[in-house]
């Protein structure tokens, strides 16, 4: 599940560890039975998980689910990033002109995390970031890294992945949570 909206997601800015725009935008919802509940380490993931009704004592912070590290661009509106840097970053998955993490590095991190879950038989519910969800979809589909930016992940939408026989499958993506 993608975290709820923040000021950064609404204003085309690079996120920092900002809170949700409105904590009342998330309500408890029954998404089925899960063996484990995981979330990214940022405040917006904690607030979304709490709003969904997840017990904080049973929700594990998973570092691999952290947002893409935007380095020096954290908190900046997209309009303040030099166009040449933005174009290079968007066109080259290995570029990190912001001094943070490249898309290539994020894909490797998420691939490693998914590999650790492969064939575990666990049902795992996750609250994370659009970038992490994009990376999971690219990884599961064995799509080229350049396709990362062609996947739209809306706030409070969910993506369902399944794994059997050592292979991940994308079951569904982009569905809004219905209360």
Automatic annotation (TrEMBL):
Coiled coil segments of this chain: none
A UniProt-annotated Pfam family: His_Phos_1
Biased composition (Polar residues): 1-12
Region of interest (Disordered), residue spans: 1-26
Protein name as it appears in the record: Histidine phosphatase superfamily protein (Branch 1)
Organism for this UniProt entry: Actinocrispum wychmicini
């Amino acid at each position: 599940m993608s975290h709820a909206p923040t000021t950064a997601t609404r204003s085309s800015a690079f996120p920092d560890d900002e809170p949700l725009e409105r904590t009342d935008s998330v309500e408890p919802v029954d998404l089925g039975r899960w063996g484990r509940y995981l979330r990214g380490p940022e405040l917006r993931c904690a607030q979304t998980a709490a709003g969904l009704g997840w017990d904080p004592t049973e929700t594990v912070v998973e570092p691999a689910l952290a947002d893409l590290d935007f380095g020096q661009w954290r908190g900046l509106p997209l309009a303040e990033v030099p166009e040449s840097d933005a174009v290079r970053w968007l066109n080259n998955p290995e570029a990190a002109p912001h001094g943070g993490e490249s898309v290539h590095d994020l894909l490797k991190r998420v691939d490693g995390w998914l590999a650790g879950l492969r064939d575990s038989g666990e049902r795992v519910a996750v609250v994370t970031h659009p970038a992490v969800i994009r990376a999971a979809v690219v990884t599961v589909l064995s799509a080229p890294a350049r396709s990362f930016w062609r996947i739209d992940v809306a706030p409070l939408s969910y993506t369902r992945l399944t794994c059997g026989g050592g292979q991940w499958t994308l079951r569904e993506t982009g569905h809004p949570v219905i209360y």
